[in-house]
Q: What sequence folds into this?
């Protein structure tokens, strides 16, 4: 079996952001369900949180290609 | 696993970073005119033409073109700038934010629109240039507002114990000078890079399976359906990344011009 362990590293680095993005949108959906008129206020916060959390996974894929050798 | 291995000859190479180096004219070196450079120039022409054409004859009762432009402008002006920077100072940053949003959005959409089919921002140089502009702007407006010394002082929240001040200042300094511009550029680059490589993988892999015959033809068909689904998903991601880049730029500017931290 051949391959590169950097790709495995990317898989590991995607676990945390995956959970994080799930938590953020769960909270966002909860918030909108409880108070639908707060949607406009919650939306930028949710997407901002998603972007910041997801960045870690994105760094993972960039570094996977860097260390591929 | 063994069936696939015997049917498929092992000469399929998955797409890699070499997919993104596409020189068009000149030498195959650092001075080459590449495809993303051409696309960036094209996007500037397209955006300028579109904005001029839809706003030259401004009407109280807007036509369809003017309506679309006003909707996009509304997202940036009211949805991003006004909400984050505050109604007192936001207006002077709207041109910058609107330009960022429209240019990034056009270039991202180039990633899935056929003749272009290449996201400009998947070359790291383009997002670095954009995030450098944002980086300079939010530091300069912050220094203009608070003064040079006052700006660095305003990084530390007031009412902190004396012993904690150096640590917090150091952390905030790293965040402001290094983490923010780097993550801003890498986020846009990474999303476009990963999305494009995924689409290329699905399409070339599906093509390889379709042409290799046997059971793999069905798998190739399924892969192409997934390639279509991923393209639609990529459209969403492209819009979202343009939005997030503008949102974060506005957030950094808001943090620099805020009165109290």
A:
């Amino acid at each position: 079996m051949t391959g590169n362990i950097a790709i495995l590293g990317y898989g590991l680095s995607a676990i945390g952001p995956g959970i994080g993005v799930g938590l953020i949108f769960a909270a966002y959906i909860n918030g909108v369900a409880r108070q639908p008129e707060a949607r406009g206020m919650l939306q930028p916060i949710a997407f901002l949180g998603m972007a910041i959390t997801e960045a870690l996974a994105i760094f993972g894929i960039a570094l996977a290609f860097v260390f591929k050798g | 696993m063994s069936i696939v291995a015997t049917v498929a000859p092992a000469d399929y190479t998955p797409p890699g970073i070499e997919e993104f180096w596409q020189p068009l004219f000149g030498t195959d070196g650092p001075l080459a005119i590449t495809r993303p450079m051409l696309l960036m120039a094209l996007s500037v022409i397209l955006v300028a033409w579109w904005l001029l054409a839809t706003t030259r004859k401004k009407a109280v009762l807007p036509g369809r073109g003017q309506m679309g432009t006003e909707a996009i402008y509304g997202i940036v002006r009211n949805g991003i700038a006004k909400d984050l920077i505050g109604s007192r100072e936001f207006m002077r940053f709207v041109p910058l934010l609107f330009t960022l949003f429209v240019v990034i959005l056009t270039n991202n959409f180039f990633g899935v629109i056929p003749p272009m089919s290449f996201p400009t921002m998947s070359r790291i140089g383009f997002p670095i240039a954009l995030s450098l502009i944002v980086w300079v702007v939010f530091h300069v407006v912050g220094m203009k507002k608070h003064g040079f010394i006052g700006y660095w002082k305003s990084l530390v929240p007031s009412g902190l114990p004396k012993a904690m001040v150096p640590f917090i200042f150091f952390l905030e300094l790293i965040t402001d000078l290094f983490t923010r511009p780097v993550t801003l550029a890498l986020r846009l680059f990474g999303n476009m890079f990963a999305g494009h490589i995924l689409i290329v993988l699905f399409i070339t892999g599906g093509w390889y399976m379709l042409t290799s015959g046997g059971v793999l033809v069905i798998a190739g068909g399924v892969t192409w359906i997934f390639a279509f689904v991923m393209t639609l998903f990529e459209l969403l991601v492209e819009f979202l990344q343009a939005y997030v880049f503008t949102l974060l730029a506005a957030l950094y500017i808001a943090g620099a011009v805020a009165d109290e931290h």
User: Anything to note?
Assistant: The radius of gyration of chain B is 23 Å. The interface with chain A takes residues 16-17, 79-80, 83-84, 183, 186-187, 189-191, 193-194, 240, 243-244, 247-248, 251 of chain B (CB under 8 Å).
